[in-house]
Amino acid sequence: MEYLSDLLLTAASMGAATYCVILSRRLKALGSLEGGMGSAIAVLSAQVDDLARSLRSAQEATGRAGGRLDGQTARAEAVARKLELLVASMHDLPEDAPPAPRAPSPRPPTPWPGETLRRSIHPVEALAEDPADDPAEPPQRARVLRRRQTSGAL
Questions:
Q1: pTM of the full predicted structure?
Q2: Distance of CA 69 to CAs 46, 66, 73, 78, Å?
Q3: 126-148 confidence digits (pLDDT tens)
Q4: Which of 51, 105, 111, 141 could be stapled to 132 by a disulfide with Cβ–Cβ 3.0 to 4.6 Å?
Q5: Is the pLDDT of residue 81 over 70?
Q6: CA nearest 145: which of 111, 113, 122?
Q7: pLDDT tens, 38-70?
Q8: Phi and psi for 142 in degrees, rounded to 5?
Q9: How many angstroms separate the CA atoms of 57 and 69, rounded?
Q10: Per-chain mean pLDDT for the chain
């Protein structure tokens, strides 16, 4: 029986030794730089370094852009103050300025025969073209009509 217990003890120690050898090999492979966790750690470390460099460059660029923005804001505030002064000085002007004298308009040339037909078909375009034909029409309306015609609203 003693022999049998020695045999079982030897078999168990051999199994434990084999298990330790296999475990040792796996741990070495896990820690190696070629294909285990060591290589993953090395790659992650390199990526952290790259990210730190890009973060520093982004912070520098942000600082430069912030400085430019501060300068532009200061310039805008100075211009706003000048505009406020100009608007305030406009209140000092009289509200009813005397109308500017109008020069007599020259007599329009005689229209060619097709022009009369076109004016009868498109009266709004005809008014917008030549506001001097109708002296009763206010000049502001003629400008609005010209503006609409050039912008393509008509």
A1: 0.36
A2: 35, 5, 6, 14
A3: 455 554 555 554 555 555 556 65
A4: 105
A5: yes
A6: 122
A7: 778 888 999 999 999 999 999 999 999 999 999
A8: -65, -40
A9: 18
A10: 77
CA-based nearest residue to 136, from 144, 127, 145: 127
Core vs surface per residue 31-41: b (16+ CB within 10 A) or e: eeeeeeeeeee
Query: In the structure encoding, which two tokens stand for residue 143, read together?
Result: 């400008």
